[in-house]
Amino acid sequence: MTAVESQPLVRNATAAASTGAEHIEVPVAYDAILLASFGGPEGQDDVIPFLKNVTRGRGIPDERLEEVAHHYRAFGGVSPINEQNRQLKAALEAELASRGIDLPVLWGNRNWAPYLSEALLAADAAGYTKLIAIGTSAYSSYSSCRQYREDYARALDETGLGERLQIDKIRQFFDHPGFVSPFIDGVTSAFEQITEALPGIDLGTEVEVLFTTHSIPTADADRSGPPERGFGAGGAYEAQHRAVAEVVMAAVGVGRSSMPDWKLVFQSRSGPPTQPWLEPDINDAIAELPARGIRAVVIVPLGFVSDHMEVKWDLDNEATQTAADNDLYSVRVPTPGIHAQYVSGLIDLVLERVNGTPTAERPSLTELGPWYDVCRSGCCENVRLGFKPALGGLAP
């Protein structure tokens, strides 16, 4: 073997993952779990600095940022996401303790304190060298997977710990039972709430289920997932959401004589009008329902793991108001949050890597998975920014 051939294929990975295999079926003795999230402001003075972090490198003036800031201002400048991650961290720690697993949980954010760099410094101070990362996003796209991997690399560079720390990541968990089960429970409960509130309503003809997720630029969506999979328009991002929605509807439909129609819709667009983003917008979709005789709508935040700002503002405020304006009864299904099955599922995903679980034994509710432990080359390209150094995957 030559010196070139002996080089690891994956940057700052453990020995098992450095080979670049799709699934790592070798046990790895990790020292700690790195819980990675988006982050959010925790006061009015934090809002603009936080948004500058989110949009770093794009030169957006404060006046434009203030137009977005009103969502946070309406909640006292406090995003719910940090408190949700405190609760998730505590829930993960409790689940680990209940199973007798000695793995500490470190928490770091991409865009606000506590930052990923702070979590890595804490890991180094504690003597931890092998971390397994849980990114709080279930699907494949630039913003929901690759950008996390780029931020791991950036945090290593900022701290100068590239020679001391190794960071692997769990697989994208869009079709893991722990993530999907809370949505099945939520849609089932929503149907019960609707039939109680509107006696005699026909679920099959007078109700619509809207599965909603964050809209992203169509160019990013088309390039989501491994290029060799050939997902086409919408890429892996859209294909994964549609596959999970089908699983949810099939599970809820067991034992029912009729079921509502459903549609995948999008929300929280933030790009310029000239840039194509995934459509239809959830509010446009809701406005079209009365003309078809729909009386009630179930809003399922399928793309979100917790009730952060896009859920609290864009769904609980705007979409709910749009439904009311169109005389529709609406129910918004809960996100997984700290649902027991979700928390347990995340630990199961960590243990897949700790134990080197064979691929055939890994739970996956769609034919698309189980997804990759190590992201494939060229996965989830951002055509505007190009490929930046990233962990947890083959270059570029």
UniProtKB/TrEMBL annotation:
Pathway: Porphyrin-containing compound metabolism; protoheme biosynthesis. InterPro entries: Ferrochelatase (IPR001015), Ferrochelatase_C (IPR033644), Ferrochelatase_N (IPR033659). Fe(2+) binds at residues 214, 310. Keywords: Cytoplasm, Heme biosynthesis, Iron, Lyase, Metal-binding, Porphyrin biosynthesis. One of its GO terms (molecular function) is lyase activity. The keyword Cytoplasm applies. It is an enzyme of class 4 (lyase). It catalyses: Fe-coproporphyrin III + 2 H(+) = coproporphyrin III + Fe(2+). It holds the Pfam family Ferrochelatase. Belongs to the ferrochelatase family. This is Coproporphyrin III ferrochelatase. It comes from Subtercola frigoramans.
